[in-house]
Write a structure and sequence with these properties.
about 210 residues; alpha/beta; Spore Coat Polysaccharide Biosynthesis Protein SpsA, Chain A; 4-stranded mixed β-sheet; 8 helices; 7 strands; about 10% strand; globular
Length: about 210
C-alpha cells in the first residue's frame, strides 16, 4: 500500500474554515496517522510505504510501522505515487500495489479489505470518493503499471485509462477523504481514529505509537 503525503505546512488548505494555520498541519498528520494505522491493521495489506519529504511526518509514520520513501521526483502527487510503486517492486517484483489517500481518518481495516478483495479480480481498479468525482484508492495487479491520475476529477481519468471502478457496499470509510469542514463533519459521524479524535478534542499532539 502506497500513501502519499505532502509537506504538512502545505496540507489541507481547504480546511481553513475549520482549522487555523497551526491546527491544519497537525490535523493533516493525525489524518495520515489514522489512515496508516488502519491500513497496517488490514489483513489484505502486507506493508505500507509512505512517500513524503516531511521529516516530522516521516518519523511519526515510521513509528507506526510504515516504510518511508523520500519523494525523489518532487513532481507532484502522481509522480510520488509512481515512485512509491517502483520502490515496492524493486523489493518485491511480483507484488500487487495500491495507492491510498492519506486523509481517510475514519478508515476501517475490514472495509479496506473488502475494497482490496473486490479490486483483486481486475488488472487495474479504483474506488471513487464519496462525492463520485475523485479517487481514494487505485490498485494494480503484479506486473501491471499503476498509472495514477489522482487530483480533481480523477474518477473520470481513471475510467478513461481503462481502470475498472470498484462497486462494493458498506465501505464508506474508504471513500470519505477529508478536504473541507463538511467532509470532516461526515468523517466524525462515521467515527474517526484515535489520533484525529484526540487532536480535535484536546489539541494535544497525536502520539507516534500505535
Amino acid at each position: 500500500m502506497i500513501v502519499p503525503l505532502k509537506p504538512l505546512a502545505l496540507a489541507k488548505s481547504r480546511l481553513a474554515e475549520a482549522a487555523d494555520d497551526v491546527l491544519r498541519p497537525r490535523l493533516a498528520l493525525a489524518f495520515a496517522q489514522d489512515t496508516v494505522a488502519a491500513a497496517l491493521a488490514c489483513t489484505a495489506v502486507r506493508d505500507v510505504v509512505v512517500v513524503t519529504d516531511d521529516p516530522a511526518a516521516g518519523a511519526s509514520l515510521a513509528a507506526l510501522g510504515a516504510r518511508i520513501e523520500p519523494d525523489a521526483p518532487a513532481a507532484g502527487l502522481n509522480a510520488a505515487l509512481a515512485h512509491g510503486a517502483y520502490s515496492v517492486r524493486v523489493r518485491r517484483p511480483n507484488a500487487a500495489v495500491a495507492a491510498l489517500n492519506a486523509d481517510l481518518p475514519a478508515l476501517r481495516p475490514r472495509e479496506l479489505a473488502s475494497v482490496l478483495g473486490a479490486a483483486s479480480v481486475f488488472t487495474r481498479a479504483f474506488l471513487a470518493d464519496a462525492a463520485g468525482i475523485g479517487t481514494t484508492l487505485l490498485s494494480a495487479l503484479p506486473g501491471v503499471e499503476l498509472r495514477p491520475a489522482f487530483g480533481g476529477p480523477s474518477r473520470r481519468r481513471h475510467l478513461a485509462s481503462g481502470a475498472a471502478e470498484i462497486v462494493v457496499c458498506g465501505v464508506d470509510s474508504v471513500r470519505r477523504d477529508v478536504d473541507t469542514a463538511a467532509d470532516l463533519s461526515v468523517a466524525l459521524a462515521l467515527g474517526v481514529g484515535p489520533r484525529t479524535s484526540r487532536r480535535l478534542t484536546t489539541g494535544a499532539p497525536a502520539p507516534d505509537g500505535p
